[in-house]
Design goal:
One of its GO terms (biological process) is regulation of DNA damage checkpoint. Belongs to the WD repeat DDB2/WDR76 family. One of its GO terms (cellular component) is nucleus. Specifically binds 5-hydroxymethylcytosine (5hmC), suggesting that it acts as a specific reader of 5hmC. Helix content is about 15%, strand content about 30%. The chain has about 475 residues and is of the alpha+beta class. It has one domain: Methylamine Dehydrogenase, Chain H. Helix 1 packs antiparallel against helix 2.
């Protein structure tokens, strides 16, 4: 009772010693009793450090090397090494829903509210289904030639390298989202023509590698980083968490349905998963091993949405999501010929009868099967017999390449050629157009996105800057 700092075990131990002392006292064992009583009543003393023995005065001085003394053999002191800069720490984002508040503000400002209100208004107006309008090649080239870049349409939107972009389908306002390598998402109202037209949010803790506006509700912006898949809902000003990976290995995603309720998600370790936004929690509905060492991109077929294509370490395969299981999955089709890692593989936007890939073996490939309708029952035959009419050296290209949603047979890719430019190719390998501007574009645009209905192209570079043609 007099030693409140003792643990319950120690108090019980002392109680036993005291009772033993009484027992031995009754047996007249005075010496033993006195010793035990002394132990029982003695307070616990704080441990003290052992005193270091003093060095003998005549102890010889230990020799130290001249390297440790930072002295040159000549006896001249060496110059001090410059201090190494500390690694910059990125903010860690907690799990669960996050409010839509810019990273440099404690609460929404009037300018932020105006940006979010613009996003909401253009999403409410656009409730019709977006259809792809195919143009004849000459007319399409004319539209490319009419596009240009000005200083007003160049802006640093995020702090670091752009890893993904999405463009809102509005036909009245140019509204772009960009994700960088630290988890930032920048929203830019390009039409605003104002310094306050862009704001930055931090809904992720690592690289935002994939983003899409919901095809059925553009008020929703879905973004994926290595640790989570989130939905930015501007109607509630919240970044909801849809899926979370404790291992931090998510790589890409795409919608399995037009209503965007389900998605297929790729993992850097090679697996894929199916996620349903309607179910509670942040776990996937199904995790599947598809035999890949690494999965970089996944893309769903635009017509037959039960099929998706996955690209990774020299593998490009098509799978049927209806038959996915935990292990032992076999592809319904494989696109052969890649000898190194494949950075991306995407179906053409209208029919899905073409696939464009970018590979580290310095090749751009476009697989196509012309003249045959796409039928589910002959899917293996159609894509299984695809041949690459385009096999172009890609050493001057950055990755990935993306299709123009308005044109079935044309895709866009950033180029490392000088002057810096973004190039448009036809699936035959023909170069249709090069976007460049000596005054406004001096860097490689490795990430590009094209508007689904308007003649608008946005390129992002490694410094967080966007260029809008």
């Amino acid at each position: 009772d007099g030693s409140p700092q003792l643990s319950a075990y120690e108090r019980k131990r002392l109680k036993n010693i005291t009772e033993n002392a009484k027992f031995f006292a009754a047996l007249k064992l005075h010496e033993v009793s006195a010793r035990l009583h002394q132990i029982a009543t003695k307070r616990q003393s704080h441990a003290t450090k052992r005193a270091k023995p003093k060095k003998a005065e005549d102890e010889t001085v230990r020799r130290r090397s001249m390297r440790l003394q930072r002295v040159e053999p000549s006896g001249i002191p060496m110059p001090e090494m410059p201090a190494q800069p500390e690694a910059e720490e990125y903010p860690q984002v907690p799990a669960g829903p996050l409010p839509m508040i810019p990273e440099d503000q404690m609460e929404n400002s009037k300018l932020t509210e105006e940006l979010l209100a613009t996003w909401m208004s253009i999403s409410e107006v656009l409730l019709v289904t977006i259809t792809n309008i195919l143009m004849i090649l000459s007319r399409y080239q004319g539209s490319l030639n009419s596009m240009g870049l000005s200083e007003d349409n160049v802006k640093k939107v995020v702090k670091y390298r752009v890893c993904s972009m999405a463009i809102h389908p509005s036909e009245s306002i140019i509204f772009v989202a960009a994700g960088d390598k630290t988890g930032q998402i920048g929203l830019w109202n390009v039409t605003c023509k104002s310094e306050e037209g862009a704001h930055v949010f931090i809904p992720h803790s690592s690289s935002v590698t994939c983003m899409h506006f919901s095809p059925c509700n553009p008020a929703h912006l879905l973004s994926l980083s290595t640790e989570s898949l989130r939905c930015g809902d501007v109607t509630r000003a919240v970044f909801d968490e849809i899926c979370r990976s404790e291992e931090g290995d998510l790589s890409s995603f795409d919608f399995l349905e037009d209503n965007a309720s389900t998605a297929v998600v790729g993992y850097w370790d090679g697996g894929v998963a199916v996620v349903d936004r309607r179910t509670p929690g942040t776990s996937s509905e199904l995790s599947a091993d598809i035999g890949f060492k690494r999965t970089r991109t996944v893309h769903v077929h635009p017509v037959n949405k039960q099929y998706f294509i996955a690209a990774g370490s020299a593998d490009v395969c098509v799978y049927d999501v209806r038959y996915l299981k935990s292990n032992g999955n076999k592809p319904v089709s494989s696109l052969k010929g890649h000898t190194k890692s494949v950075a991306s593989a995407y179906f053409s936007p209208v029919t899905g009868n073409r696939v464009v890939t970018v590979c580290a073996d310095d090749r751009l490939r476009c697989f196509s099967r012309k003249g045959l309708p796409f039928l589910t029952r002959v899917f293996y035959c159609v894509l299984g017999s695809m041949t690459p009419p385009l096999c172009h050296r890609a050493s001057q290209f950055s990755v990935p390449s993306v299709w123009d949603p308005k044109q079935e047979d044309c895709f866009v890719v950033g180029s490392m050629a000088r002057p810096r430019q973004i190039e448009v190719f036809q699936d035959t390998g023909k170069l249709l157009h090069s976007f460049y501007n000596l005054d406004c574009l001096s860097s490689v645009c490795s990430i590009n996105v094209v508007h689904p209905t308007k003649n608008i192209l946005v390129g992002g570079n490694s410094s967080g800057r966007l260029h809008v043609f």
